[in-house]
Amino acid sequence: MTHDSSASEAAALDAAARDDAALDAPALDAEVPVAPDLDLDLSETEDDLARERALRVGLEEFELDETDQALLDSEWTDEDAEAEQALPVLAIIGRPNVGKSTLVNRIIGRREAVVEDKPGVTRDRVSYPAEWAGRRFMLVDTGGWETDVAGMESKVAEQAEVAISLADAVVFVVDAAVGATATDERVVELLRRSGKPVVLCANKVDGASGEADATYLWALGLGEPYPVSALHGRGTGDLLDAAIKALPTESAHGKLRPSGPRRVALVGRPNVGKSSLLNKIAGSERVVVDEVAGTTRDPVDELIELRGIPYWFVDTAGIRRRVHQTKGADFYASLRTAAAIDKAEIGVVLVDASNPLTEQDIRVIQQVVDAGRALVIAYNKWDLMDEDRRPFLEREIEKELVQIAWAPRVNLSARTGWHSERLVPAIERSLESWDRRVPTGKLNAFLGELVAAHPHPLRGGKQSRILFATQASTRPPRFVIFATGFIEAGYRRFIERRLRETFGFEGTPIEISVRVREKRRR
C-alpha cells in the first residue's frame, strides 16, 4: 500500500510539472519572444550562509569519496576568453573538381572539408585554422569558379570572388592532367586585378611523368607551377613553403576573432531557411541560397556584430532523418553539423512553421539539448502560414515539445526579415541562463523551502532526504544533490521546474545528478 502511494505521489508531481510547462508555453502570436526580465537577486544573506555551513557540517557524518570532497572544496572562478591572434588568410581558388577541398584536408591534416568525386560539392567559402613551419594562418576553401554561369553556379562564383578580396594570398589550383582551360585563364585575369600574391598549384601530378604536364602551366604567367598530388601528399611541402613566403605575418583585414565572441549554430532539417536567415542577419549575401534542399554542406562561419556585440554565426548543413541513411557528401555534412553544434554555445533551431512538425525537427532540437547547448527555437516561414494552420501548430507544440517549454520561441520570416530582430534578445537571454550560477547558500535555502513544502515521496517505506546541493558547473548549469537515497525521476523534474521558476533558467538545459551517500559506521 505504501509503495502504491509513493508511486502515485511521484506520478502526480511529474504530471503537475508537465502541466505547468504546457501552460507556460507562449502563444503563437505573442508579441514578446522571451519572458520579461526577471529581477533576480542571487546575493547570499547571512541566513543562507549559516544554513550552508550547518549542512556542510552535517555532511561530515556521511561517507564521502575524493570526488565528493573535491566538488565541495572547489571555489568558483570565471575564465576569461582569450583573444585570438589576427591570422593571415590563404584562399584556395580554382574551377570545379580540380581538388581544392582535397588540398585543404591535406594541409590541415584531417578530413574536414567535404570531398566527393564530382564537381560542385563545395558551395560556400569555409575557413579552417592551419599551421606550417611554425606559422599559423587561416585557410579558406571555396566553391569552384566558373564564367558565364547562371543560377546557383553564378552565386558560387561570387563567393570565390569575395574570398579573393578578403585573402592575403591565394593558392590557384589547376588540374595539370587537363591543362589550362579558358576558365582558368579568366581566373588568372581576376587574380591579376586583385593584386594579391598568387602561388600556382599544378594538382593531380601523381608521379614523375605528370611533372612534364605541369611545366605547360608556365604559360599562365603566374610564375613557377608547383606539381602536387593533394590526394597522396606529393609536393605539398614545397607548395606550402612558397605560400608561407607569400603570406604577410598579420592579416591586412584586421582581427578575425575579437576577444570572446559567442558562437551561434543555425541548425535544422534541410531547406528550412538557415542560410537565408544568416544572410538577413549579416545584411549581405554571405551564404549560397537556393530553392534546392541541401545547398549548404560545410558549416560556414560569419562574424556579425549585433547591438555592438560580436557573434560567430555558423550556418550548418540540414540534418537528415538519420545519419546512416545518408550517403556521400550528405553523410559527411551531417557529421560536420554535429561537430558544429558541439563547438557552438547556443543552437538556434529553425522549424518550418508552414508545415507540420516532423521527426527530424524533434531530433534536431534534442541533439542541441543532448549536447548541453543553450537553445532558441525559431519558427521560420511565418509569412507562408495561413490561419487554418495556426491551431494545428499550437497542438503540435503542446504535444511534441512540452518537455522543452523552457526554450524561447521566435516567430519570423527569414525571406522578408519580419521579426528577425527578435532573435537577438532571445539569444542573449538563453546565453545568460547558460552562464548563470546560483550561490551554494542560496541554492540550499531554496531546496530547504521546496522540500519542506513538497517532501520526496516514500519509496519502499523510506523517504530519501536531501542533505546538500551545489552547482558543479555552468554551460550548461549542472547541479549535484547529495541525498540519503534514490531521488525519483519525477521529483528531479519537479526540482528542475522550480529551479527555472525561481532562478530564470530560460533557454538552457539543466542537468541534475544525485549522489546517494550512507552514514559513516561508528
Describe the protein.
- The chain is of the alpha/beta class and 522 residues long.
- The protein has helices spanning 2-24, 46-59, 66-73, 100-108, 152-166, 182-194, 208-215, 236-246, 274-282, 328-343, 359-370, 389-400, 423-435, 440-453, 489-503, and strands spanning 89-93, 126-132, 135-141, 169-175, 198-203, 225-227, 262-267, 300-306, 309-315, 346-352, 374-380, 409-411, 458-459, 462-463, 466-473, 478-483, 511-516.
- Strands 2-3-1-4-5-6 form a 6-stranded mixed beta sheet, with helices on both faces. It has a 6-stranded mixed beta sheet with strand order 8-9-7-10-11-12, with helices on both faces. A 3-stranded mixed beta sheet has the order 15-16-17.
- Helix 12 links the parallel strand 11 (374-380) and strand 12.
- The longest helix has 23 residues, at 2-24.
Secondary-structure blueprint:
Blueprint: H1 2-24, H2 46-59, H3 66-73, E1 89-93, H4 100-108, E2 126-132, E3 135-141, H5 152-166, E4 169-175, H6 182-194, E5 198-203, H7 208-215, E6 225-227, H8 236-246, E7 262-267, H9 274-282, E8 300-306, E9 309-315, H10 328-343, E10 346-352, H11 359-370, E11 374-380, H12 389-400, E12 409-411, H13 423-435, H14 440-453, E13 458-459, E14 462-463, E15 466-473, E16 478-483, H15 489-503, E17 511-516
Parallel strand pairs: 1-3, 1-4, 4-5, 5-6, 7-9, 7-10, 10-11, 11-12, 16-17
Antiparallel strand pairs: 2-3, 8-9, 13-14, 15-16
